[in-house]
Structure formats: C-alpha cells, structure tokens
C-alpha cells in the first residue's frame, strides 16, 4: 500500500504547473482602426477618403496569418544559387513562400504605385499609411516595395524608358519568376549605388559605362565594375551609377537582355545582416552588363536623387512603423501580465515608460505625415516652392531623427516584456534587430546632417520656410516658442556648423514634431511631448516623464485593442 501511495504522489507531483499570467499574442486585431494617431494624421493631411481601404489593410496586416508570414520569412533566410544543377550561371535567390506572400500583399495593394497612377490630394499620405501598416507585419520585404515606388520619378526623366517600363512597374501585381522582364506583366526595381571604396561618397565610384552606339539619354551602354550593396537582387532591373566620359551617370540595368540571354550581373554573395534578414542584399559584379542611360549624361546623381528622396521618406515611415509595433507589443504584454499585485499597465512606473514610448510614435508620425502632405502638394503643383523647400529640409531632418531614435526605443519596449522580449519567438526580438537598419540605409546619420547643411548653403530660403511652418504653432506653448527662438540663434554664426550639425538637426526635428502635434489638436499629447522633449528635459531616458501629464489619454492611444 505504501509503495502504491508513493507512486500516486509522484504522478500528482509530475503535473508541475499550468500556464498562468502570460499575455496573449497580439494578432487578429485591426492595426488601422486601433491607431488613433494614424487615423487622425490620415484625415488631417487630406487622405480621409482612403480610410475604408486602410481599415481593410489594417485588418489584414494585423491578422494571425500575415503576422506568421513575417516570422516565417525571417526564420527562413534567402538562399543564393550562383549556378544551376547543370553548371549554368543563374545568380538566383530563392525565398520562403511567406516572403512571396508578403510581396504580393504589398504590390497588389498598390504600395509601389498608387500616388503615381492616381495622383490626387492625399495620395502620398494614404500610400504612406498603407506602407506603415504593412511594415508592422514585417519590415524586410519593404525594401523592394520602396525601391520600385521610388524609381518612378527617375525613370520618368527619360520618356523612351518610361514608355516601355513604367506600365509594368506600376501594375498592381507580383510575378517572382526568374524570367526576362518582357515576359512579365509586373516588375520590381532595385538600386545599385555604393561601392567598396566609397560608400556614401558615390563620386568615388569606379564602375564604368561604355556606349554601344551614339550614347546619351535612353541609349544602350555596357557597364563594367562592382557594387558593394545591391538590395533585392531578384528585382527585374536596377538603377545603377556608373562613369562615362562626361562623369557619373545613371543607368537602368535589367537582369536579362532583350535577346533572352542573362545579363552579366553576377552576385558574389549575400550580406549576412544583423536585421532585415528576409530581404536579400548582395555584392555584385557587372561584367559588361547592358543598361540604358537615365537622365542626362554626367548627371547621374541628380537623376538617382529623385529615387533617394523617396526612399528616405520611406525610411521615416518604416522606422515610425517599427516604433508603433514595439509600443503595441509592449502595451499588449503589460495589459495581460500582473506583478506585485497589479497588472503591469496599472503600475505607475510602467505607465510612465509606455506613455513615453507612445509619445515618440506620435512625434515620428506627425513629422512623417506632414512630409507626406508636402509630397502630395508638390506632385499636384510642381510650382509649389514652399512645399518643395519644406521637403528639402524635412526629408533629411526627419529621416535622421526618426531612424536615430528607433533603436533605443525598440530596446526600451523590449525591456517592457522582460525575458520574453529577448526571445526570437516573440516579435520584439526582430523589431530590435531591425531597428538600426533605416538609420544606415539611404545615408547614415552624418550623411543626413551634412545634407541638411548643403540644403542651407545652396538654398538659404529653406530655413525661412522651416520657421514659417514652425510659426504656425507660435503662442500655443511658451516652451515651444523658447525652443524655436533658441534654434534661430544657432544660425546666426555658421562658422563651425559642420561640427554642430547633429545638434542642429536634432533641434530642427524636435521643434517640427512639437509644432505638428500642436497643430494636430490633441492637447494632452502636445503638452506631454513638449514638456518631456524640449528645453531641459530633452536629453533623458524613457520613463522619466514630468508629473502632472494626462497619461490616461496617451496610453489609450497606445492600446492596439482600442478600436
């Protein structure tokens, strides 16, 4: 009897526990309907007409199915095959089906095309909102979506190329087959700018282009050289910088030649990156690759800068999306987890941290969507100098600040999940690895700060426009007024401006974020942002908000379940 009794006790003890006090997964929610900051920005900047479609896209990107695609695309990295089984050179990258599903979702919804095919008030804002939702499910596949979208203004510089290529580039479809572009109805475009020896200094490029015939815009050349970073090597063509006798020029280089033979764009290897792993980035060699000149000869940088401006805008949107998803994950966890007798989200210090993280999202989205409105205004009125100059300063300043803030933001949100945040099965680990990428893509922080100085030197009027925009919030808050006055003082002596460039661009960005939040009309958000980020409170850790702020309102806006 005793032996039997002991056996029964052992069996009972072997059932050690049931799972308690774990938050549920953030899935099957509507990422648009629950995002008050995004919805308000869409309406404020002229894209209210897009809300039904954005709501549908938010439901899709917040679904368990699409979220799982994001995990699978990152767990199964792209694989490179230089040759096929018979020994023929193929330079093919193979992706997990989940990656293709994400690409199809983005391209079929028009993230790459909508403002170009249906230009109207709010088109860029609506497209940015859709991209913002898509990036929250998975960020890596956004690279080819962005480049395809951003290539359009550059390709339009050469009518013969635009006529042939743009109908398929702008088609809302996805065809991942490894076949010539003329056999497809929809195409994607990549970019090859940087080289080993130059990086951001593209004027140090050594790749050469040789005219096959007469040469000039739209004419055929053969390119010989290398590129150190060419993302999405399975794109159907690439905008590439190469030198001719007249200087650095831009070329559209397809993966296949018109005769059906493989264009000699040879992938050397794929980059093994800290983040953005679902997206293949490669080193390539151009061994007489056929390409057609885009824009004027010797004007390659001005031609491709059309593309770079758009990709920088998408870096702002992508990093803002990463911030939003990080807060949503943190709030979801804090709402379903208790410690020391209270739900985490009811703990005063956790509320301080979460509200502070949400304020960062509010500021990022505010400046990004104002730039989206400026894109719409310049697209509809090419003579709108005010909006053009606002973009000229706003894109480098906004890209610098939002992308620079995202890594620490992701870390702080990760910490809210405790040990779970550092585990790969949770999305926070991927968000953290992804966070530094956009600060490096399309020009690092120093490059953006120096570009801001170039804009000031070349077109001093950009500063007048910036302060005019800031002036729209004058008188709303004395602390903001003081910050703007102090910022103006920074430009009285530009002798050591390059040394101070980061500090200047920090303050340009912060004051613009604050002024846009004042314009947005939510006094609780604007008050908390200004109180915590301007003046003596500007340099501090998250979770150190001043007392007396309306955290209830801010946390409600952070809640992904608050439809």
Question: What is the topological layout?
Answer:
Blueprint: H1 2-14, H2 36-44, H3 51-61, H4 64-75, E1 79-83, E2 89-94, H5 97-108, H6 114-117, H7 123-137, H8 142-155, H9 159-169, E3 189-192, E4 208-211, E5 220-231, E6 237-244, E7 247-254, E8 265-270, E9 281-294, H10 300-335, E10 338-339, E11 342-343, H11 348-380, H12 385-416, H13 427-434, H14 437-440, H15 445-458, H16 461-471, H17 478-490, H18 501-520, H19 523-533, H20 551-558
Parallel strand pairs: 3-6
Antiparallel strand pairs: 1-2, 4-5, 5-9, 6-7, 7-9, 8-9, 10-11
Helix pairs in contact: 2-11, 3-7, 4-5, 7-10, 7-11, 8-9, 8-10, 10-11, 10-12, 10-13, 11-12, 11-18, 11-19, 11-20, 12-13, 12-15, 12-16, 12-18, 15-18, 16-18, 17-18, 18-19
Q: What attributes does this structure have?
A:
563 residues; alpha+beta; seven-stranded mixed beta sheet; two-stranded antiparallel sheet; 20 helices; 11 strands; globular
